[in-house]
Design goal:
InterPro entries: HATPase_C_sf, HSP90_C, Hsp90_fam, Hsp90_N, Ribosomal_Su5_D2-typ_SF. It contains 20 helices and 22 strands. By secondary structure, the chain is of the alpha+beta class. The protein folds into 4 domains: about 10-205, Histidine kinase-like ATPase, C-terminal domain (Heat Shock Protein 90, 2-Layer Sandwich); about 240-375, Ribosomal Protein S5, domain 2, CATH 3.30.230.80; about 405-495, Rossmann fold; about 510-545 and about 555-630, Heat shock protein 90, C-terminal domain (Four Helix Bundle (Hemerythrin (Met), subunit A)), CATH 1.20.120. Strand 12 (about 305) and strand 13 (about 310-315) form a beta hairpin. The chain is elongated. The structure holds adenosine-5'-triphosphate.
Length: about 625
C-alpha cells in the first residue's frame, strides 16, 4: 500500500469544489460517465492505430447501485490507467490527460469530451469516499486501487481486475443518499447521457418475446400467440442521435420521430434545419420551428446544448440570438467553451461565429421555403411570422437577410411582401407629402365599420394582429423611406391619407358653432376634443378616432404591463360629420332642447358602440333609448 498527498494548491479544495465549481451537483454523474466515454473512445483510437490488439466490439459503460454497501459504481471497458497514470491524472488536479492525448492524436478525430481537468473531482460533491479500481490496456499492467476519503490524502494499493477498464465506486451517505435511488439515477442519465456515443447500461428491463404456441393442440386457435418476456440489459442511451447522421440518409419521418423523442406529446413542428459544419468550428444539430399556440407564452429554453453528445444545458441565450430561442432542438458543439462564465461566452470569438452561422442558416431556410413553396410559406406564416418579425426587430443582420420575405396580410387574406404592397397602394394611398400610408386594423371584426368605410373609400386595409406588430411597424417605418402606418380608426376615413383637397361642407360657420355648442354642453367636452368635418354623406354622423401617436403610447404602456394592445377608452377625439343629414338637417333643425339633448347623446353613444367603447349602464340606457326611438 502506498500513501500520498493530492497536489492541489489549497488543503481545502473539496469544500470549494462542493460549493463553487458546479452550482448543480447532479452533474457529477455527467462528469464520470463522460470520463468513461472518453476512456472507451481512447481505447478505440489506440485500436485503430494498431497499438491495442484486443477487441473493441461492444465496449460499454455500466452503472450500478448497491443499496447494502451504499455505493454507486460507474464501470467502463475503456483504456484504464497504470499506477503512474493514476498518480499523474487523478492526483494532480487540473492536469488532465485529455490535453496530452489530444496533442498526440490530434488528427484522429478522437471525439473526446473532457478538457476541464476537474470533472473527476466533482464526485466528491456527493460521495464521502471514492475508490477507483483500474487496469490499463498496456502490456503487463497490474490493476490498482486508488482510495480517497475527501481529504487531500489518498491511498494506492494493488487490486484485482480481470478486464481492462475502470470502476469508479462512490460511497454515498447521509443527505446525498438520494443518489442511491434508482429513480434519481435514471432521471440523471436521461437528462445528461441520453445521446452519449457509447452504450450505457443501467440495470435490466423486461422485453416481450413473441413465441408461437404448438399449433397441433386444441387450444391453438384460441391463443395462437402467447407473450412471454425476457430480461435484457437496459441501455439508456441512443448512441447515434439524428443530428449526428448525414441529412441525405434521413427522411421527414425521421425528423418528426426525433422531435417526438425530444418533446413527447408536442404538436408536429413546421419544419427544421439540420446544422452541420466542420470549419471554422465544429457544430452539428437540428433546429425545429415549433407551432405556436399562444403568442404570449412562447416557450423558450427548448434548445438543448450538447458537447460531443453530452448534454450541457438548455440555457442557450448566449449562443443563440434571443429571437431564435423560440426554436426547439439540439445544438452540439465541442467548440463552445463550457468552463467560462456566461458573460465571457458572449464575447468568445467562436461563439460569435456560431451565432452568426445559426442566424444565417435559419434565414437561408426561410428563404428557401419562400422561393420553392410560397403557398406553404403563406400557410405557415402565422407561426413563421412571429420568428421573422422578432428577428427583424432585434437583429440587424437577420433583418437584412429576411426583409424581402416578410409578408403583410391584408384583411382580405392576401399576402404581399413589403415592396409589393407599397407598390400596390402607391396610387391610392400616397399622401400630399409623398408618404405612403399603410392602413391597418388589429382586429377585423371589432373594427368592422372602420375597415368597411376605408375599403369603400378605395383603401386597402392590412391585418396586423400579432403580438409584436407594434414594434414591427416601427421597425419598418424606420427602415423604409417615406412610409407611415396608421390604424384604421386613427382618423376619419377622409383624413387617413392626407390630401390637399378642399371639401364642401353643408353647414355654415354659424351652424357649425351651434352644433359644436350642443355637443360640448351635452357631453361636457373640451373644445379641442371636438371637431366638425365635411365627411362623405354616407360616413357615420359621429365618429370616435384615436390619433395614431396617442394610441401607440397607450399600446406601449399596455404591453409593458403585459396586456395585449387594443381598445379601452383612453384618449380619443370626437368628429362630427357636418355633411350627414342627421347632423346637417335633423339636429340642426331641432327645436326642443330636450330632444336635442337626447338625440346628441344617442349619436355619441352610437359612435362609442362602434368602437366597442360602450358598456355597463350606458349600454343599457342606449338600448332602451333605441327601443323608444323605434317605437316613436
Ligand atoms: N474512467 C476513466 N478511465 C481512464 N482514465 C480516466 C477515467 N477517469 C478519469 N481518467 C483520467 O483522469 C483524467 C482527469 O479526469 P477529469 O475528469 O478530472 O478531467 P478531464 O476528463 O480530462 O476533463 P473534464 O474536467 O472536462 O472532465 C482524465 O483526463 C483521464 O486521463
Amino acid at each position: 500500500m502506498n500513501k500520498g498527498h493530492i497536489s492541489v494548491q489549497s488543503e481545502n479544495i473539496f469544500p470549494i469544489i462542493k460549493q463553487f465549481l458546479y452550482s448543480d451537483q447532479d452533474i457529477f454523474l455527467r462528469e464520470l460517465v463522460s470520463n468513461a466515454v472518453d476512456a472507451i473512445q481512447k481505447l478505440k483510437t489506440l485500436s485503430r492505430k494498431g497499438e491495442f490488439k484486443g477487441s473493441t466490439e461492444d465496449l460499454r459503460i455500466k452503472i450500478e447501485i448497491d443499496p447494502d454497501k451504499k455505493t454507486l459504481t460507474i464501470s467502463d471497458q475503456g483504456l484504464g490507467m497504470t499506477e503512474e497514470e493514476v498518480k499523474k491524472y487523478l492526483n494532480q488536479m487540473a492536469l488532465s490527460s485529455a490535453n496530452d492525448f489530444l496533442d498526440k492524436y490530434k488528427d484522429e478525430g478522437t471525439g473526446i469530451i473532457g478538457h476541464f481537468g476537474l470533472g473527476f473531482y466533482s464526485s466528491f460533491m456527493v460521495a464521502k469516499k471514492v475508490e477507483v479500481v483500474t487496469k490499463s490496456w498496456q502490456k503487463d499492467a497490474k490493476a490498482v486501487k486508488w482510495i480517497c476519503e475527501g481529504e487531500p490524502e489518498y491511498m494506492i494499493e494493488d487490486a484485482t481486475r480481470d478486464q481492462v477498464g475502470t470502476d469508479v465506486i462512490l460511497h454515498i451517505e447521509g443527505e446525498d443518499e438520494e443518489y442511491l435511488e434508482e429513480r434519481t439515477i435514471s432521471d440523471l442519465l436521461e437528462k445528461y447521457c441520453k445521446f452519449l456515443p457509447v452504450p450505457i447500461q443501467f440495470g435490466t428491463k423486461e422485453v416481450p418475446v413473441e413465441t408461437a404456441t404448438d399449433e397441433s393442440t386444441d387450444e391453438a386457435e384460441d391463443k395462437a400467440k402467447e407473450v412471454e418476456t425476457e430480461e435484457v440489459p437496459n441501455i439508456i442511451n441512443n448512441t447515434h442521435p439524428l443530428w449526428k447522421k448525414n441529412p441525405t440518409d434521413l427522411n421527414d419521418q425521421d425528423y418528426l420521430d426525433f422531435y417526438d423523442e425530444l418533446y413527447p406529446y408536442s404538436d408536429q413542428p413546421l419544419f427544421w434545419i439540420h446544422l452541420n459544419i466542420d470549419f471554422p468550428f465544429h457544430l452539428t444539430g437540428v433546429l425545429y420551428f415549433p407551432k405556436i399556440h399562444n403568442q404570449l407564452e412562447v416557450q423558450k429554453n427548448k434548445i438543448h446544448l450538447y458537447s460531443n453528445q453530452v448534454y450541457v444545458t438548455d440555457e442557450v441565450k448566449e449562443i443563440v440570438p434571443e429571437f431564435l430561442t423560440l426554436l426547439h432542438g439540439v445544438i452540439d458543439s465541442p467548440d463552445i467553451p463550457l468552463n467560462v462564465s456566461r458573460s465571457a461566452l458572449q464575447s468568445d470569438r467562436n461563439v460569435k461565429k456560431i451565432t452568426g452561422y445559426i442566424t444565417k442558416k435559419v434565414a437561408d431556410k426561410l428563404k428557401e421555403l419562400y422561393n420553392t413553396d410560397r403557398e406553404q410559406y403563406e400557410a405557415k406564416w402565422e407561426d413563421i411570422g412571429v420568428f421573422i418579425k422578432y428577428g427583424m426587430i432585434s437583429d440587424e443582420k437577420f433583418y437584412d437577410r429576411v426583409k424581402d420575405i416578410v409578408l403583410l396580410k391584408s384583411t382580405e387574406g392576401e399576402y404581399h411582401t413589403i415592396d409589393a404592397y407599397l407598390d400596390k397602394i402607391k396610387d391610392s394611398q400616397t399622401d400630399k407629402n409623398d408618404v405612403r400610408v399603410v392602413i391597418y386594423t388589429f382586429h377585423k371584426d371589432a373594427q368592422d365599420s372602420y375597415v368597411t368605410a376605408a375599403q369603400d373609400y378605395g383603401y386597402d386595409v392590412l391585418l396586423l394582429d400579432q403580438v409584436l406588430d407594434n414594434h414591427f411597424i416601427q421597425t419598418v417605418e424606420q427602415k423604409w423611406d417615406k412610409v407611415r402606418f396608421v390604424r384604421v380608426d386613427s382618423e376619419t376615413v377622409d383624413q387617413l391619407v392626407a390630401k390637399d383637397e378642399e371639401k364642401e361642407t353643408a353647414l355654415s360657420e354659424k351652424e357649425q358653432e351651434k352644433i359644436k355648442g350642443i355637443f360640448k354642453d351635452v357631453l361636457s367636452l373640451d373644445d379641442h376634443r371636438l371637431e366638425i368635418r365635411p365627411l362623405p354623406v354616407d360616413a357615420a354622423p359621429v365618429q370616435i378616432v384615436k390619433p395614431e401617436f396617442m394610441r401607440r403610447m397607450e399600446d406601449m404602456q399596455r404591453m409593458q404591463s403585459g396586456q395585449l394592445p387594443g381598445q379601452g377608452l383612453g384618449m380619443h377625439q370626437i368628429v362630427i360629420n357636418g355633411n350627414h343629414p342627421l347632423i346637417a338637417q335633423k339636429l340642426n333643425n331641432m327645436r326642443s332642447e330636450e330632444k336635442k339633448v337626447d338625440f346628441t347623446k344617442y349619436l355619441y353613444n352610437l359612435a362609442l358602440l362602434n368602437q366597442n367603447m360602450l358598456n355597463g349602464k350606458a349600454l343599457t340606457d342606449f338600448v332602451k333609448q333605441s327601443l323608444d326611438y323605434a317605437n316613436s
